[in-house]
Please model this.
Amino acid sequence: EIPNLQPGDNVMILGPGPRGLSALVAAKAVGAGWVGVSGLSDDTERLAVAERLGADMTVNSDLDDIPAAVGDSLGSRPDVVIDVTSDDPEAIPLALDLVRAGGQVVIGSTKGMKPVNQLFADVVVLKELTIRGAFGASSAGYHWATRQLGIDERLDLMVSHEFGLSEAPRALQAAAGLLGRDELVSVAVSI
Model:
């Protein structure tokens, strides 16, 4: 729904967690021309899943320069940058830098009420950017997503840990990374 992608749009997703991987699947489903996903060194498994879900490029931001990697892979700047990094306000200036003039930045995650440093409003004005916040999805968005679950078996790749309802406390620990992040993609609780 947000950012109202059009077929052929080029999209960069900052953050390969469940929201980022879902954004990747949605972008590909509506016909995005190119989709890149960035993550940290702890996100090796998630970046591998992004590749299997069809990402045109993945980049480890701890090791590589994201703008250079995007430029090398895409040859231009993306039309849309989606920031779904958790608790990282510094991803917002990066998103503004990455997106093309006239493009759109979607902030789809909270930043723990932390201030954003080095945010220059002039960048937004001079590049004529649109910035949107996205906290959730409408009921139509959820219906679309559940239809995708039945269509695309690759979505099973997004669940790395499955727990029964009686194991819900352990599932929460896993989701928080308290049981290790090496192979964590996302957690599902079965009823």
User: Anything to note?
Assistant: Helices lie at 18-29, 44-52, 66-74, 91-98, 121-126, 139-151, 168-175. The chain has two domains: 10-133, 159-191. The beta strands are 10-14, 34-39, 57-60, 80-83, 104-107, 130-133, 161-164, 187-190. The chain has seven helices and eight strands.
